[in-house]
Amino acid sequence: MAGLRLTFLGTGTSMGVPTLGCDCRVCRSPDPRDHRLRPSVLLEYNGHAVVIDTSPDFRQQALRAGLKRVDAVLYTHSHADHILGLDDLRPFNLKQGDIPLYANRATQEMLRRAFPYVFGQATRHSSVPNVDLQEINGPFELFGRRILPLPVAHGEMEVLGFRVGRAAYLTDFSAIPDAVKKELRGLDLLVLDALRDRPHPNHSTVENSVALVRELAPRRAYFTHIAHDLAHEETNRRLPAGVELAYDGLAAEVED
Fold first, then answer.
1. Does 256 fall in a domain?
2. In CATH, what number is assigned to the domain containing residue 220?
3. Which range of residues forms the domain containing residue 92?
4. End-to-end CA separation in angstroms for the chain
5. Which of 85, 106, 78 lies closest to 42 in space, CA to CA?
6. CA distance 183 to 231
């Protein structure tokens, strides 16, 4: 089976970097790797394109990535920075028809509330996203690959990470259950939330995520969901070998 390509569409927090109204050194940084859109990734395999989360910046992200189609969307959870770009699926609908959206029940309920014009029965006077909600309640196959949902804690909320082959993506988490850790050992690529150095009740810190990398021993790891507290180059200099901050537009090939 051919390998998988993971592209970081956005590596920032819910406010993005630069953050509105902020004049800190990272928000003023000329390094393009310090410019972070809201969190999302693209998975390409077997000739298909699968997006994890449609951030509010999805249109800009898709243009930058040269995205020509979206075959499916996987949702980690229902927070605004992960769902509000759903409407930008419309141009892909015009070319390819319905797009399946995979989400757990709680996220499906929020999608219906946030986008009543998409999921309601009211008369439509304009184009709307044509999507097909599919509930995630365990592992499933998508375009010839097994998708393994990974329930983790985001403060008091349960959210999903995903493992596809030898790659896993976990954004927005504060703790990973032991049962999930068993599915994350010895991967080729592990992507983890690492918001900042200071503790946060809903997110992992750099220190915590470095400790997870040491415990789970992937071949390489990237950190995402990065706040404006962390400068890219400066932070990378203090990370252990095989661990880096991701940046918008970074692509990684994952071999089976």
1. no
2. 3.60.15.10
3. 4-121+128-245
4. 7
5. 85
6. 31
